[in-house]
Amino acid sequence: MRWENLATGSEHSRADAALFGAEAVTTRTFDTPEFRGITFHEIRARSIVNRVPGASRMPFEWTVNPYRGCTHACVYCFARKSHGYLDLDTGLGFDSQIVVKVNAPELVRRRLASPRWQGEHIAMGTNVDCYQRAEGRYRLMPGILAALRDHANPFSLLTKGTLILRDLELLRQAAEVTDVGISVSVGFTDEGLWRTVEPGTPAPERRLEVVRTLAAHGIGCGVLMAPVIPFLSDGPDQLRATVRAVAAAGATSVTPLVLHLRPGAREWFMSWLGRHHPYLVRRYERLYAEGAYAPKWYQRRITRQVHDLAREYRIGPADAGMPRRVRTPGPTGAPVSGPVQLSLL
Ligand code: SF4
Question: Which residues pair with 41 in a beta bridge?
Answer without folding.
Answer: 27, 99
